[in-house]
Design goal:
By secondary structure, the protein is of the alpha/beta class. It has four domains: 220 residues, Rossmann fold; 68 residues, no CATH class; 79 residues; 111 residues, no CATH class. It has 22 helices and 16 strands. The strands form five sheets. The protein has a seven-stranded mixed beta sheet with strand order 3-2-1-4-5-7-6, with helices on both faces. Helix 20 crosses helix 21 and helix 21 packs across helix 22. The longest helix is centred in the last third of the chain and has 23 residues. Bound molecules: S-adenosylmethionine. The site of S-adenosylmethionine has 22 residues, from loops.
Length: 511
Amino acid sequence: MSSEWSAGYVTDVNYTSGYYPELSPIRCRLPLLTAGHHAPKIENACELGFGQGLSVAIHAAAQSGVKWWGTDFNPAQAARATEMARLSGSDAKLYDEAFSEFCSRVDLPDFEFIGLHGIWTWISDENRSVLVDFIRRKLRPGGVLYISYNTYPGWSSAAPLRHLMKRHADVMGAPGDGIITQTGQSLEFIDKFFTLNPGHLAANPSIAERLKGIEKQDRKYLAHEYMNRDWTPMYFAELEAWLRDAKLTFACSANTIDHMHNLNLTPDQIAFMQSIPDPSLRETVRDFCVNQQFRRDYWIRGPRTLGGHEQVTALREERIVLSAQQNALPTKVQGVLGEAGLLDTIYPPIFEYLSDYKIHTIGDLEARLGPKGVTLAQLTSAISILVGLSAIQSVMGGSEIQKAKPRTAALNRAIAELAISGGDISNFASPITGSGVSAPRFHQLFWMSKQAGGKTPADWAGFVWQILSAQNQAIVKDGAPLQGDDNLVELTSQAGIWGEQVLPVWIALGL
Ligand SMILES: C[S@@+](CC[C@H](N)C(=O)[O-])C[C@H]1O[C@@H](n2cnc3c(N)ncnc32)[C@H](O)[C@@H]1O
């Protein structure tokens, strides 16, 4: 069901609390630089349609050099986001205004970064025009747009499935049942219908697998992904045509693993793509090769291509930190073509150098690995892959880190307090990277216990067990709830692992 202000957007269930690193202006530097573009200094940033607001709350708390603005017209979500921003002490200005209202405010600065994740596909043409006009007026020359959207041809076989789900809900769904029940009923209907082996299914057998995948997903996510009135996947060139009015040029994928052609395209496909002179047709052909359904891209208003020396200098100055645990350093990477091993001659020496978890520049790394025969180009490719695997992250400036520390500490405390009664947030904020850090519920509570003076795994586990037992909660292991003291034994084991493996990384990331 949707209310009058919602323009057909699902509003009777709130969205999931996801964190999306691509929305971080700190993180966008490296992909832009490796793609050969100047990365602007970002002081004013805006997130449109921030959902539960976890990304914007983390970025506003952790990025002390960036002033954040944002809107999401769902008041419950905007209230939660505003509260997180307030508790962290950040000065983010977050509103519950519709795009048309927010974009016509007269008190907004010009932005060097505008981000919208999971918005473009799910709004009307009218709203798309509002956003493009906003970007045209408010994104500074040289500024970056991050935009993600469902794309063709990746969605071409499954789009009819979405149509049927929505059609069933529109025709058969009782408004009083709510969108979650309606989504479930649509799936039951399709399940039953597909046993009749309709011709469309026979011609598109991958849809059966797709349906199985959908059935396992969070119903709140499904309601927002599939049940809005508006749902318009686009070819790359169609989005490009929209963004042309805002003078934007495609810069690169925000997924740094996409930049590695040899992981995603066959040598013949790479040669074919390189023979295409037009960059837009090249992107379209690439989408046909990889058949991806969701694009996450950076666009620039007037990109400035870096000269060779300029690019090398900017890359050498980029500050990075290792953010993977020692017991989970990656050894392989998944591309469209399959899994590839990470070269022993390049990756272990990188890990060895970064394993002090201190901040280093790529230039430092080059100086250390150059004599071992590793070139800057190889290093840059390896770092792109490791950024894509979240094993390495870009780092903020020193003075910004100091200023961010009390704010991230306050936000992390507020998030951990929500975890006492359950909570659906699985990230903390890092003042070093300006980004989110994966933090499941028990890890948040172990951290809280440590902040309160707990010193050993037994202390941390005891703290968490007190919280769980007071609420008659038990740990579910192998599908069954543990009984009595078995919970404490399990928690002590988990706390020991957290202390040994996770905590050193969290300390390095300033948590
Ligand atoms: C699919 S959710 C994505 C939320 C968030 N960006 C994320 O990825 O977690 C789309 C969000 O856009 C908001 N939204 C949709 N139409 C809007 C409009 N016209 N004005 C403001 N917000 C809107 C919804 O309330 C919803 O939170």
